[in-house]
Design goal:
It is an enzyme of class 7 (translocase). The chain is of the alpha+beta class and about 200 residues long. It contains 3 helices and 10 strands.
Length: about 200
């Protein structure tokens, strides 16, 4: 048999041309890679920035859908306001209405009650408030019927001052809903309300 042959160079192998897949600024073999560094980084930054914008837009849509789902429905919003017919409340009487899960006191005050609460020096009270800033009309008092001590429901037309009396711990409020005696720290809360006309009260 003849002697074996050893090939030291594969000169007959053709190397594929990848220039079609390389960027134009990187095709020159004599040009250092650092010279095209800025353009290559610009492309990377643009790609990352585009992905960030897309992700932010998708996140916004997810949050928006979540907030919309958690928003109160039309029937719940309707309960947020309540309409009271004032003609049904005689002078000197107080009615209790359920509003947002809490008792709402609407009192038709007499002239005597108005004069009595306005004769009091409000600066001597624990929670000093003049009657004038607690009502929009002198004859109508609107309060949230929750004692500011521990959340009990006071009794209307009761107590030492003819207003409201909390049977739980003995807090007394006058006909303006202001604390006059007892452990409660504050006056009864006045909610937001309006009078669209002379015969109607809207609370909320």
């Amino acid at each position: 048999s003849g002697p074996g042959q050893v090939r030291f160079a594969h000169s007959d192998i053709t190397v594929p041309d990848f220039n079609d897949y390389r960027r134009r600024d990187a095709q020159d073999p004599n040009k250092p890679a650092v010279s095209s560094d800025v353009s290559r980084k610009a492309f990377s930054y643009m790609l990352v920035g585009g992905c960030a914008v897309t992700c932010a837009y998708a996140a916004k849509n997810v949050v928006q859908d979540l907030v919309t789902t958690m928003s109160a429905s039309a029937d719940v919003l309707a309960l947020a306001k309540i309409e009271v017919k004032l003609a049904e409340i005689p002078e000197g009487k107080s009615v209790t209405i359920k509003w947002r899960g809490k008792p709402l006191f609407v009192r038709h005050r007499t002239d005597e009650e108005v004069n009595e609460v306005r004769a009091v020096d409000h600066n001597t009270l624990r929670d000093p408030e003049p009657d004038e800033i607690r009502v929009q009309k002198p004859e109508w008092l609107v309060l949230i019927g929750v004692c500011t001590h521990l959340g009990c429901v006071p009794i209307a037309n009761a107590g030492d001052y003819g207003g409201y009396y909390c049977p739980c711990h003995g807090s007394h409020y006058d006909a303006s809903g202001r604390l006059r005696k007892g452990p409660a720290p504050y006056n009864l809360e006045v909610p937001e309300y309006t009078f669209p006309d002379e015969e109607t009260l809207i609370v909320g």
